[in-house]
Amino acid sequence: MKTEVIRGEDGVNVVFDGNIDLSSVDEIRRSLEDVGRLGERRVVLDLNRVEFVDSAGLGALVTFYKSHPQSRIVFSQVNDRIRKLFQITRLDTLFQIE
Asked: What is the pTM of this model?
């Protein structure tokens, strides 16, 4: 799993490359904690290069989302499989998905 953080004028983009699962969840958490410390008002989590998210990955995403209520967190480039997972778990009602 690779994570690239790109700061811009309107916030920060976090580009994930690989699956968000048990094998990568510790790295994901560390990356998201680093992003959270930036204090950006808008954080875009780009899932374009993510094929799969498991329950551990979902937990990390939800934890980040809930621990940064001051930020507008947006999920972008979500594939159909992950979008369906968000719908099944009703996270689509919590997350903003573009």
From this structure: 0.92
